[in-house]
Amino acid sequence: MSFRRDTLTKPIFALARGVLPAMSDTEREALEAGDVWWDADLFSGNPDWSKLLNVTPATLTEEEQAFLRGPVDELCAMLDEWKIFWEWRDLPHDVWHFIKREKFFGMIIPKEFGGLGFSPYAHSEVVRKISTRSIAAAVTVMVPNSLGPGELLMRFGTKEQQERWLPRLADGRDVPCFGLTSPEAGSDAASMVDTGIICKDIFEGREVVGLRLNWHKRYITLGPVATLLGLAFKAYDPHHLVGEQEELGITVALIPTHLPGVEIGHRHLPAMQVFQNGPNRGRDVFIPLDYVIGGEERLGQGWKMLMTALAAGRGISLPSLSAAGAAFAARTTGAYARIREQFGISISKFEGVEEPLARIVATAYQLDAARRLTCAALNAGVHPAVVSGIMKLHATERMRTTVDDAMDIHGGKAVIDGPQNYLGNLYRAVPVGITVEGANILTRNLIVFGQGAIRAHPYLLDEMNALADADRERGLAAFDKAFWKHVGHSLQTLVRALSRSWTFGAFAPAPDAGEATQFYRQLSRYSAAFALCADMALLTLGGALKRKEMLSARFGDILSELYLLSAALKRWQDEGRQKEDFAALEWCMATGFRTIENRLAEILANLPNRFVAVILKLVVQPFAARVLGPSDRVVHQCASLVLEPSAARDRLTPDLAHVDDDSGFARLERAFKLVATTDAIAKRMRAAHIHDWKEAVTNGVITQAEGEQLAAAREAVTKVIEVDDFAPEALSPIYKKTGGVHQFFQELGEQRAAS
To answer: Boundaries of each Acyl-CoA dehydrogenase C-terminal bacterial-type domain copy (predicted)?
Structure first.
């Protein structure tokens, strides 16, 4: 018998069991899905920086590089986003054929099943490049390789299922989609009303045990063209054909869309994006049990399977598209600000432009850093569930801010739609990324910290499992062991947080990282402060913290910043501590530290237990939130990274889709290079107070060749500044029927006069 367990732990155990809220099966399965990784170090309050720096950077094989230089570049050259949006409302037939032929749908499927067998990083790079040319094409390629039947079959399918379906998915004979969202159940999957009743029926000429399915799904990407539907539903066994339990839970199965009872609906038009998306229904659709992914033994395990797959997919698909959008915004907005003049000078010289431009640049740097770090984990076989939630949430949110900033700087150029507007469709696409794969409001308020607090905390999950153990004595023994380790951990965290906060992190652990060493020290400081405040919130609120969504969101913001800032530091280290890029790193750090300080202050101001809040304030924020954000010097240096052709600009915006055509982006790239090349010539003319290059040649200020070069640059700038216009008849069928807009309004005027 243990004196500590029986005297001290037992009453605490009894109290905790009484207040612990019940956890639903879907909540437990979501928590158990995926892995913990660097997020656990950050949650510990004492991150081991050597672990981060020793993560092998994500790289591409020669075969993957060849695919990016070959089929991906060829696909990008085939794409015209304006025609896809305005004329075709779909990818053209030759593009669909090319995507299937080159196995874009089978990037993640192993070679043994006819796929390309690419790494998560290669998948990310492919999506990233295509999305800078066409959102519709990127989403089309992205979805089958993230959350879909292919991923689920690879992880959970039987050998027979893999051998049957994966080759067909790899070579495009089958186009997949996945049906999860219902009108009744979006984020709340437990409310799903789609059902599968286990019964006997005839299938392909023989009687088998199977499922009779009824469902209604919507928002299903590739749904209107899919030949193989992955379906989530609730399985029931009322006749006990497979066991004693009647309600089996959420299950996933494969449904060939040609089966009787399957109804493919019309198309949705998500935020004017024309990738294939739409509803579907099933009415009394019968499938054999071997169509359940994983077979009979996987009945009722669908939610855990989905959450495990999502832990990988959420870290690749939308973060890749978002990082690409930020990089594209940085490259185009820097170039446009450089060549566009107002009041006789480049608008890039205005500090009002520099501020949002710096934000675009630094965000592009940080998002791609986080994308690469997350892909490195996925390449190593880790499926970081909490990190994937952070990535989806913050990549899409920061893309929204970045694209808004780019639109502001471009002004009317980005507002007027047409073939020459290279930002318009990206702007329209932002709400799609914000909404899908888990709405951002839900992810921020409930998932990041809610899941992270349990999974990434060193002891909390062990304590919860002990409290939920049906064997009380075994649970007490396990709780005793975990609880006192938790107490020791909390005391250590208290000491770390106190010492690091009162010394401004001057002596906090940090690797020798040159100029960046100071940033590691601050992250060590904030990690300890975060861990202590999280522990105290959990202690004082218990299960009620689950309902304090605003507090949970603030904790989640801090954990997210710690991860994203870690990724930026990792990138700077991996790229050889490039001095030119340090301004982008400084901007990220200053902005992230300001967010952390503000969120800590908000948590302490709103923590219900005011006594604990006052004590925490003295420990973690004794001198108030004093971080102001990036200085004007940093803003200026950061914005300057994209205003001239340079290695730094290319590092910031690598591997975008560059097609040498007459599109708006290609025109901008040519004009930018010409303006940069002729800058010295233009300065000599300004110094001589001459605006006409021919006059400058006559006066000997510049040579004839220089004048012609300058004229070419000015002509290129004029073509960039141009915006599209359309004949009225091209925009509205009304005018086609009446002989033109003028005749239409003339007749309208005559009708009014007659009346």
So the answer is: 454-726
φ, ψ for residue 234, nearest 5 deg: -95, 125
Distance CA 555, CA 562 (A): 11
Q: Is the whole model's pTM more than 0.90, yes or no?
A: yes
Catalytic residue among 437, 463, 597, 706: 437
Mean pLDDT by 10 residues, the chain (755 residues): 78 76 64 82 94 96 98 97 94 97 96 97 97 97 88 94 97 94 76 92 93 96 96 95 93 96 95 95 96 95 84 86 97 98 93 98 98 96 91 96 98 96 96 88 88 83 81 85 88 95 94 96 97 91 84 96 98 97 98 97 95 95 87 97 97 95 96 95 91 91 94 95 90 73 67 69
Residue-range domain boundaries for the chain: 176-302, 455-630, 660-754
Q: How many CA atoms lie within 13 A of 337 on its CB side?
A: 31
Taking CA atoms, 180 is separated from 94, 197, 214, 221, 380, in Å, by: 30, 18, 13, 11, 28
AA identity, residue 405:
D
Task: Take residue 546 and report the two structure tokens written for it.
Answer: 């689950």
DSSP state of 212: E
String of DSSP letters for 225-264: G-SEEEEEEEEE-TT-SS-S-SEEEEEEEEEETTSTTEEE
Other residues' Cβ atoms within 10 Å of the Cβ of residue 480? 20
Query: 740, 737, 746, 743: which is closest to 727 by C-alpha?
Result: 740
Residues 6+ apart with CB under 8 A from 648: 578, 580, 581, 641
Question: C-alpha dihedral over 503, 507, 511, 515, to 10 degrees?
Answer: 60
Assign a CATH topology to domain 176-302. Answer: Butyryl-CoA Dehydrogenase, subunit A; domain 2 (2.40.110)
Q: Is 296 a catalytic residue?
A: no
Whole-angstrom Cα distance, residue 385 to residue 145?
A: 17
